[in-house]
Amino acid sequence: MTASAPGSFEASVARALLDPSEPVPHGITTDSGGSPARRFAVHRNNVVVGLIKTLQARFPVVEKLVGEEFFAAMARIFVAKIPPRTPILTTYGEEFADFIAAFEPVREIGYLADVARLEAARTRAYHAADAAPVNPSRFAVLDPDAVSEIRVTLHPSAEIVRSPHPIVTIWAMNCGEQELAPIEDWRSEDALVVRPHLDVEVRPLPPGGATFLLALCSGHTISEAAQAAFGDHSEFDLSRSLAELISSGAVVEIIAP
Amino acid sequence: MSGGSHLPARAGVGFKPRHFKEIVAAPEPIGFFEVHAENYMGAGGPPHAQLGALRERYALSIHGVGLSIGSMQPLDRDHLARLKVLCDRYQPESFSEHLAWSSHDGVYFNDLLPLPYTANTLARIAEHIDEVQTALGRTMLLENPSRYIRFAESTLPEVEFLVEVSKRTGCGLLLDVNNVFVSAGNSGVAPLSYLDAFPFDRVKEIHLGGHHEQTDDAGAALLIDDHGSAVAKSVWTLYEHVITRAGPIATLIEWDNDIPDWPTLRNETLVAEKILIATSRASAA
């Protein structure tokens, strides 16, 4: 590589930015003061610290659960391994939950990756397309028999996050939505993340609720989705799940049979 | 004269979502708001709702931080297309980007990285700016970077490089006075001598922000452009010098880290506004 090859500076700088073991690229100098290494460190720091801050902003509850210092160290490893592939950083860290799931030092904190999945879904919901929820009165006028045959379109922001751990409770307790207390009943919690208007909501789902919503998302009718949910959980309660779905504002379209 | 901006020659401020409620609850006569383009590339939600509401009342500057114009590799066409969608939707009074690169081989580094100033890089940057201006159907502004290092292969002074890019492409310039102070301090030259050569007739917007002063391993001052504090006194002095010579120019207060409350930020714009008004009066007299 010669200094005159167009772009050669870029490749060597790019290589050295994310790898502190790389020497400062050839041809970098300073006009005054200290070593090129100290000056180049400003850029290395801008890149890595900026991306760690981006992850902190997206995963505040994960950070609270492991502590600021540990989070920064973990994020630093993630950043070097999976740097952004787009200049849009609002959803940087899509792979962070999977990374945490495989990250040996947090293996004991089984719920951490699922909390990260919940936080990632919240950001996606925040930036998702807008759509107006169907007015609940539209359901009230439907013939009860007809209801079972309808299909619905869910809000573009809606996502279901499932976990064998009580992630909704853990999340709510660590973001100030619920008082911090010991969790006596450690059980599986699924969540509906949705932004019907401007605020992102996290709603815990009743038993079978996640299967019900996922079936609706796949285009099944209410009765088909209810059957799937019953198969999953014998205590699935259709009228409760339906009422909660309607009040959540997650339905943006009713498709009559 | 190069074009590129219809911002009023007043003080504006970098918009922070946390200030939105206060801004709309008691709207004040802010010259303009500036936003980073990349924060408004989602499909919907609060970012667009807020930007739409601001747009109705205020002049708007869209400032890109991720196009990597200073790269020797081709521009990211997808990103350029997203910028076009954004500019078409909000019709900002100005679109600006940086004399810097931030992506290489598809990896985005989230920093404004420097490039050598040579005939080769000049030709490449001019091509990129032509491409941007053609794609967006508008004239853009190019901002001087804050610099920490120099490339041995550089043959052109930064100001000469900027002038030549502006002449070849017709783009306007965005003069970041804090960046001038930081770059000059880090390369041991007087900021005034950098500004002496600056083509003020091509400057359509000014940026002012805070920096952080450290000492490097040789005991020399190392200035870091972190937008994390109030504008330094020495930068205000430099700004007055620019405005006295150039006349009133749209001026932005940037404060991106350790963000203060709205009244504090608003007060910073009033300092700039005062200097702008004093200059217009002086030139009218």
Give structural notes.
The complex is a heterodimer of chains A (257) and B (285). Chain A has a three-stranded antiparallel sheet, sandwiched between helices. Chain A is mainly α. Chain A is elongated, with a radius of gyration of 24 Å. The mean pLDDT of chain A is 94. Chain A has helices at 8-17, 36-58, 60-66, 68-81, 96-101, 112-127, 137-140, 144-147, 167-174, 209-217, 222-232, 238-248, and strands at residues 28-29, 151-154, 159-163, 189-194, 201-205, 251-255. The longest helix of chain A has 23 residues, at 36-58. Helices cover 48% and strands 11% of the residues of chain A. In chain A, α2 (36-58) packs across α4 (68-81). Chain A folds into two domains: 1-109, no CATH class; 130-257, Enolase-like, domain 1 (2-Layer Sandwich), CATH 3.30.390. Chain B has 285 residues and is of the alpha/beta class. Chain B has a single domain, classed as Alpha-Beta Barrel (TIM Barrel). Chain B has helices at residues 20-25, 46-57, 77-90, 119-136, 158-169, 177-187, 191-196, 233-246, 262-284, and strands at residues 11-14, 32-36, 59-63, 94-98, 101-104, 107-113, 141-143, 150-151, 172-176, 203-209, 212-215, 221-224, 251-254. Chain B has an eight-stranded parallel barrel with strand order 1-2-3-4-7-9-10-13, surrounded by four helices. A two-stranded antiparallel ribbon of chain B has the order 5-6. The radius of gyration of chain B is 18 Å and the shape is globular. At the A-B interface, α1, β1, α2 and α6 of A face α2, β5, β6, α4 and β8 of B.
